[in-house]
User: Which sequence fits this backbone?
């Protein structure tokens, strides 16, 4: 694993940077966060070059996050009502790079709109996949369903039901670690790139996991969870702004 040139940046509930020139706007709504603890050595081979597992008390985490993407918009254009709004479920890991920037690494992102999937795969090299999906609310329960279509593996799926509970007024260190992530690491044409984001502080709620049947985690190259999640959270959501990759003095995007 790469050595750190700097200590990891502090874990903060509010973004440590600004997106003065955002190029991508979207909202994440009705989120269910499921997380399992993992040994760093298990996930390290799956991270982009130049990053290593981010840890808390010696452990890293595997996340399964289901939500509604809402009105994705580019630059100052209004969000797109149909193509820019869809259910999504992602499998993600937690990373830190040599500059100490904490982020997430997506192993898969299931989404229900084919055109955004194709654009994200071609333009950003993100592992989006096209799936048949739904998010349903029934009284006090939210259910997320995903069945993969393309490019596979066929049969990859998830069915998650949670019951949101009370608002968390003071999130724990672990709850901040799992949700307050202010950037994304991604392999882009053979090098690791960092894409920053900002959003308001998460409104987090405790959640009861009523049902979870899935194989997205193993389809993403990770071991199947052997026990119940270490953390289950719900959030009604936040608006999000993505900034451009930071640039070196010569104007070249930094890794």
Assistant:
């Amino acid at each position: 694993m790469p050595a750190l040139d700097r200590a990891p940046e502090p874990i903060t509930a509010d973004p440590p940077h600004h997106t003065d020139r955002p190029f991508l706007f979207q909202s994440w709504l009705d989120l269910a966060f499921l997380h399992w603890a993992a040994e760093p050595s298990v996930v390290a081979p799956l991270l982009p070059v130049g990053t290593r597992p981010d840890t808390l008390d010696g452990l890293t985490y595997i996340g399964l996050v289901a939500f509604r993407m809402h009105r994705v918009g580019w630059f100052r254009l209004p969000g797109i009502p149909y193509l820019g709004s869809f259910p999504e479920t992602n499998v993600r890991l937690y990373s830190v790079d040599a500059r100490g920037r904490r982020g997430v690494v997506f192993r898969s992102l299931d989404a229900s709109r084919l055109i955004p999937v194709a654009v994200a795969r071609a333009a950003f090299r993100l592992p989006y996949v096209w799936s048949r999906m739904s998010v349903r609310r029934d009284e006090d329960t939210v259910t997320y369903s995903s069945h993969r279509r393309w490019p596979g593996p066929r049969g990859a799926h998830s069915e998650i039901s949670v019951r949101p509970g009370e608002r968390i007024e003071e999130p724990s260190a672990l709850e901040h670690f799992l949700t307050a992530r202010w950037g994304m690491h991604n392999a882009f044409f053979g090098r690791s790139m960092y894409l920053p984001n900002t959003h308001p502080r998460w409104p987090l709620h405790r959640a009861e996991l009523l049902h979870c049947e899935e194989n997205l985690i193993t389809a993403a190259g990770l071991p199947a969870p052997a026990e119940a999640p270490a953390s289950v959270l719900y959030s009604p959501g936040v608006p999000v702004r993505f900034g451009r990759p930071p640039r070196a003095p010569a104007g070249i995007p930094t890794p």
Residues 248-255 have pLDDT under 50 and may be disordered. The longest strand covers residues 24-38. The radius of gyration is 17 Å.
